[in-house]
Amino acid sequence: MSLELEHDCPHCEESRIFYKAASMTVHLGTKTKWRCPECNYAFIKINGIDSSASA
Ligand SMILES: [Zn+2]
Questions:
Q1: How far is the CA of 7 from the centre of ligand 1 (A)?
Q2: How far is the CA of 5 from the centre of ligand 1 (A)?
Q3: What predicted TM-score, i.e. pTM, was given to this entire model?
Q4: What CATH number corresponds to the domain at position 37?
């Protein structure tokens, strides 16, 4: 699995190379936390699925 991920940052309002800040195994699978190095915005993915949209 890569340690970097290109993703649109809603804070910077442009595409950034996020880095993996944390990774843990949960009952749903593997949970990874990605952080924007520019503004420190972070979001969670579970099994590679972006869960930032789910409130
Ligand atoms: Zn950002």
A1: 9
A2: 13
A3: 0.80
A4: 2.20.25
pLDDT of residue 53: 58
Range of the domain at 17: 4-47
Query: Measured in angstroms, how far is the CA atom of residue 29 from the centroid of ligand 1?
Result: 26
Q: Is the pLDDT of residue 21 over 90?
A: yes
39 CA to centre of ligand 1 in angstroms: 4
> Cα(15) to centroid of ligand 1, in Å?
8
Interacting residues of 5 by C-beta distance below 8 A, sequence separation 6+: 17, 18, 19, 20, 34
How confident is the prediction for the chain on average, in pLDDT?
89
Residue 55 covered by a domain: no
Residues 22-35 have a mean pLDDT of 92
Non-local CB neighbours of 49 within 8 Å, separated by 6+ positions: none
